[in-house]
Predict the structure.
Amino acid sequence: MLATQRTFGLLFLLALVLLGQSTVGRALTREEAVDLIATRLDESQTKDGPHRGLWSPEVVFMGAITTGMASAFEWTEQEAYKTSADFAGYYILRTSVAQGNLFGDEAYAFVRLSEISEDPNANVWRTALDDFYLSPRKGHNEDNTWEYLEAFDSVEASTATFYLAHHVVAAYYIEDQDAKIWREALIRHLSRVDDGAPFPVMALGVATWALATTGSLDETPVALFHGAAAYWDGVTLADLPGLLATHQVLEGEGFVGSFYWRFDHGAGGTGGAVAGYTEDTIFGTLGLIAADSLKTDESGDDLEERIAAAETMLLVGIDAGGGVYEHLSGQGNTYNAFAGEMLHALWSIEAYERQQEAADGESETPLAEDG
């Protein structure tokens, strides 16, 4: 997750979208997008020497890029993308051993690397996750997981939510005995988020993704803990998908299909765009996909259409060279981390649609006649 200024001129960006202008001259297909982005990342990665696997200078955002390359391989089965993902994973592994820590997005990258391994149940990435989530209970630096999690109390709320969401998915992936503790920590830090945070809607999106991926969205209140923001009064986990959907831009407004970045749908005094930022839309989309995959009544009937609208907007934000910018209009900084997150989102949409098609096929299969 990258700090953003959110100060782009709204009228200029709105004109770009309304005119249908894109840097590639037409909307990319999902397949074209993954090829452009993954090829660019593969070609810009350090392949030799002590920094093999690194995308310089984005060393602290390696998790997102690695996840993207693993997703690109799972989609296309191009070995070059898997090699790139593995190189990056080993770079993260080396630095994590030296530092004795894993960022949440790095832990989730290990999940994706494990999932594409020859044996997902026995591989170096799964072992690294087992060791990391066990380490607080070894008493090396902390006596237990809660003590480790206390460090997040001093982290800005939406940033803490972002990293904890990824940790939750990773902890559940290896079935760590303290996985529920990580989940409770995620809910607690989500409840701290309001429009005073730099990434409120993104935090809601990534938390919804993690919570729906790892368990049910039930009647558990979000504001369970001391220090919860007023925004969460009366909100339960079951309410999160519907709440997230209210922050997606509707037809007739600018950046249709993207997400607002604040709960009040304003600019927060920045004078910039109120919607259309790449990361807000990526993690909002992931949240809707995970929620709809649960197929609960609370997730609503229109999430499939909302996911399609989000994908349309995401595809506009990729340039002809595979670059992904801070804003989906193609404005602002371009980072490899954004590109990795985009690959993750597009693969998640692809997997979601495959799941939908499989479910539709099963529902259309005629029942065998008696006799």
About this structure: The radius of gyration is 20 Å.
